[in-house]
Task: structure prediction
Amino acid sequence: MHTLITAHEQEFSQGVEHLKQELSGLRTGRASATLIENIMVDVYGSMTPLKGVASISVPDARSLVISPWDPSVIKSIETAISNANLSVNPVNEGTTIRIIFPEMTEESRNAMVKVMNAKLETARVGLRSIRDSIKESILKAEKNKEITEDDRYELLEQLDLITKDYTKKMQDIGDKKEQEIITI
Result:
């Protein structure tokens, strides 16, 4: 594989990893620490992810318990969760915060699938943007006589195969997440 493609292949991988991270924050039928672990909390004057200031446990399928390492930040955590638009109300129990997720209805599951599909499409657009950037580099290299016309055709073919491969990976991730969301 030519360096014009391999130099950017890590960007494709990062796009897939970013999609995984984005989708991990979507709610399925079960409570998961990934839903809240990246919520930014104002602690000691700086914004810190929740997982950096507290432990998060899943005592049952519909609730999470957050135990801050420093009890003085419990109000900041409660405020950050309330402002995170999760449609849940955190319950301050003194030294811990409990979040109970309501049962998902068919309507809320369908809405979550739409959100998931929007995130998937955004990831695909990012992938196409990377592909277009590499394609420009290939065409520029041919124009500058760094590669031949035959090399250009071969590189564009390789680029299309790589793009299809990563697009399929993203679609598989989306399909798996959709099954998690709609499974009762």
In short: Residues 54 and 69 are 5 Å apart (CA to CA). The first strand starts at residue 40 and ends at 43. Helices lie at 3-6, 9-24, 74-82, 106-143, 149-182.
